[in-house]
C-alpha cells in the first residue's frame, strides 16, 4: 500500500516530464518522466550507465536537457545552472564529501551561503546555526573540524549544509556508499523522519535494495536510458526490482573456488613502513603473505593504512622501511618489476588513479601493452587499428557500456570505467592482483560479474590481495582474512572460523 502523504506538508513536489538528453548521437536519457510526491522518499534505481546521474544532472542544472521540463509544485521552472536549482529549493548530496576538511562545520556552512558578509559576526552565526540545528533531527558538533568527524557525521554535515541552504527537495547520489551499515541506517532514518513530517522531499540514488525496501516510499527504475518502471515500493520485492533493472540479461553465477591455495608464497610483505600524505606514519610494520591461488582479504575501517599499502604495492608511494618480495625476489614496484612479475592493480577511484580521463577507452585499455606486439610494430610504431580491435574485443567480453572504443573514458558511467580497467588488468596473465574496493558504487549485476572474475583469476593461480571496506565481500571471497588497524595487521582468521565480534573489536582498534 502506498504511504499516504503527511497531514502538514511544507516540502514541495518535484516532477520531471519527458526529459531527453543526448551526447552526440548517443541518447543517455530517452523521454524519462519521474514524479516525487511532496514529503516522500523516492528511490532511483538502474544498472551502471542506465542514466540515473544524467537524469539528476538535468534536474539540477548541470546539464541542459534536449527536451522535456522540470516542475516544482506543478509550475515549470527553468534550471540553467546549479545555483538556480538552489533558488528553487533543490539541494544535492554526493557520494564523496565536498566540505573543506580543515574548516569547522560552522565555517563550512557559513561560507557555502550565496552571499557572505565582508565581516562575519561568528558569534551571531554560531547562535543562528545552533538554533537552526535545534529544529532538525541531525546532531553534529558544529565546532569540530570536518576532518575530525567520522564518515557518518561528515555525511550528516553534508545533508545539514543543504538544509541550511534551504533545500527542501534533497537529491542524494549514493549517500551511504562510504558509510558503515549502522551509519547508513541512522542517516537514512533521519532523512525519512523529516520526509514523514512533511518537511522534505527526497530522491535517492542507491544500488542497495535493502535501503530501498526499508526507507523509500516510491521507486523509479531506469534501463538503458529509458523508464523501466515506477510505483510504490510496497508493490515490489528485491527480485521484481532486479528484473526491472536488468531486463533479460543474465547475472554471473557466483564462481566456485577451485582447489586450495598452494604453498608457494607469491607476495611477501615484511615489516613494511610508509608515511601518509602529511608525512605521518601510516604503515608501521605490516607483515603479510599471499600464496598462489589464494585470496587474502584485508578488512579495516578506512584510514588505517589500507590506501598507503595499496599505493606502495602499486609503486605510487615510497616505503620508508621493510621489504616487498614477489616470487621470492625483491620487488621494487617500478614499471620493470611490475611487468616482470605480472603484478596488476585495481585501484580505488579508477578514473582518477588508473586512467587518463581525456584519452579514449581503447587508449586506456592499451596502457599495459601499447609497446608490445601486436599493438606496436617495429618496436615503436603504434598500430591504431589493432588497438581498436583489441579494445572492441575487451568491451564485448567484459560488457563495458560505451558508444565505442573511441569514446573518451571520462564519458563512461562510474561502473563502466571500473569494468574497462578490470578488462585491462585481468585479461592478461596475472601473477599478483591487488584490488582495492573493486565493486565500490557498482550495481548488483556488475558486482556479481567482477567477483566472479576475481575468483576465476584466483582459480587460475593468481595471488590476490583484496582490500575492502565491505566485510561481507571479504567473507564471501577470501581464503584468509586479516584485519588492519593503525598501520599493522592485528588479526588473522579464515572466513569459516571468523568471529564477527572479534573482527569488529579489532577493526575498532581494541
Ligand atoms: N558527458 C558525457 N558524454 C558522453 N556520454 C556520457 C556523458 N555522461 C554520461 N554519458 C553516458 O550516458 C550513459 C548514462 O550515464 P550515467 O552516468 O547517467 O549512468 P548512471 O546510471 O548514473 O551509472 P552509474 O551507476 O555507473 O553511476 C552512459 O552510457 C554514459 O557513458
From TrEMBL:
Highest taxon above the source species: Bacteria
Signal peptide limits: none
Protein keywords: ATP-binding, Nucleotide-binding
PROSITE patterns: ABC_TRANSPORTER_1 (PS00211), ABC_TRANSPORTER_2 (PS50893)
GO molecular function, one term: ATP binding
Domain annotation ABC transporter: ranges: 14-249, 265-510
InterPro entries per UniProt: AAA+_ATPase, ABC_carbohydrate_import_ATPase, ABC_transporter-like_ATP-bd, ABC_transporter-like_CS, P-loop_NTPase
Membrane-crossing residue ranges in chain numbering: none
Protein name: ABC transporter ATP-binding protein
Amino acid at each position: 500500500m502506498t504511504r499516504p502523504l503527511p497531514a502538514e506538508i511544507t516540502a514541495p513536489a518535484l516532477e520531471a516530464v519527458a526529459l531527453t538528453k543526448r551526447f552526440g548521437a548517443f541518447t543517455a536519457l530517452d523521454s524519462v518522466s519521474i514524479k516525487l510526491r511532496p514529503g516522500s522518499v523516492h528511490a532511483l534505481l538502474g544498472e551502471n550507465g542506465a542514466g540515473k546521474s544524467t537524469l539528476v544532472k538535468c534536474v539540477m542544472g548541470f546539464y541542459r536537457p534536449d527536451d522535456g521540463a522540470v516542475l516544482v509544485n506543478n509550475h515549470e521552472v527553468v534550471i540553467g545552472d546549479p545555483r538556480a536549482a538552489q533558488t528553487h529549493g533543490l539541494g544535492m548530496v554526493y557520494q564523496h564529501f565536498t566540505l573543506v576538511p580543515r574548516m569547522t562545520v560552522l565555517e563550512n556552512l557559513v561560507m557555502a551561503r550565496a552571499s557572505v558578509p565582508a565581516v562575519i559576526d561568528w558569534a551571531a552565526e554560531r547562535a543562528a546555526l545552533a538554533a537552526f540545528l535545534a529544529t532538525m533531527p541531525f546532531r553534529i558538533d558544529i565546532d569540530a573540524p570536518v576532518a575530525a568527524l567520522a564518515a557518518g557525521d561528515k555525511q550528516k554535515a553534508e545533508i545539514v549544509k543543504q538544509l541550511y541552504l534551504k533545500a527542501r527537495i534533497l537529491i542524494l547520489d549514493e549517500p551511504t556508499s562510504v558509510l558503515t551499515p549502522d551509519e547508513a541506517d541512522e542517516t537514512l532514518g533521519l532523512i525519512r523522519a523529516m520526509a514523514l513530517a512533511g518537511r522534505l522531499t527526497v530522491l535517492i540514488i542507491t544500488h542497495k535494495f535493502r535501503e530501498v525496501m526499508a526507507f523509500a516510499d516510491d521507486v523509479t527504475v531506469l534501463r538503458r536510458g529509458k523508464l523501466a518502471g515506477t510505483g510504490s515500493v510496497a508493490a515490489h520485492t528485491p527480485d521484481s526490482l532486479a528484473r526491472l533493472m536488468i531486463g533479460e540479461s543474465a547475472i554471473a553465477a557466483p564462481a566456485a573456488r577451485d582447489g586450495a591455495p598452494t604453498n608457494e608464497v607469491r607476495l611477501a610483505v615484511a615489516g613494511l613502513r610508509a608515511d601518509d600524505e602529511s608525512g605521518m606514519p601510516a604503515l608501521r610494520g605490516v607483515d603479510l603473505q599471499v600464496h598462489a591461488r589464494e585470496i587474502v582479504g584485508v578488512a579495516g575501517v578506512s584510514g588505517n593504512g589500507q590506501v598507503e599499502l595499496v599505493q606502495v604495492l602499486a609503486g605510487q608511494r615510497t616505503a620508508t622501511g621493510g621489504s616487498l618480495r614477489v616470487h621470492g625476489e625483491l620487488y621494487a614496484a617500478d614499471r620493470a618489476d611490475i611487468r616482470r612479475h605480472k603484478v596488476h592493480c585495481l585501484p580505488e577511484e579508477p578514473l582518477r588513479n588508473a586512467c587518463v580521463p581525456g584519452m579514449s577507452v581503447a587508449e586506456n585499455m592499451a596502457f599495459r601493452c601499447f609497446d608490445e606486439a601486436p599493438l606496436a610494430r617495429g618496436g615503436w610504431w603504434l598500430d591504431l587499428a589493432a588497438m581498436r580491435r583489441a579494445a572492441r574485443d575487451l568491451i564485448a567480453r567484459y560488457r563495458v557500456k560505451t558508444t565505442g572504443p573511441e569514446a573518451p573514458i571520462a564519458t563512461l558511467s562510474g561502473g563502466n570505467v571500473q569494468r574497462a580497467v578490470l578488462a585491462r588488468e585481468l585479461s592478461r596473465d596475472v601473477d599478483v592482483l591487488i584490488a582495492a574496493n573493486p565493486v565500490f558504487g557498482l550495481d548488483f549485476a556488475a558486482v556479481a560479474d567482477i567477483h566472479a572474475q576475481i575468483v576465476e583469476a584466483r582459480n587460475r593461480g593468481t595471488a590476490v590481495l583484496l582490500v575492502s571496506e565491505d566485510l561481507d565481500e571479504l567473507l564471501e571471497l577470501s581464503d584468509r582474512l586479516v584485519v588492519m588497524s593503525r598501520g599493522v595487521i592485528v588479526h588473522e582468521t579464515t572466513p569459516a572460523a571468523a568471529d564477527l565480534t572479534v573482527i569488529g573489536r579489532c577493526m575498532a582498534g581494541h
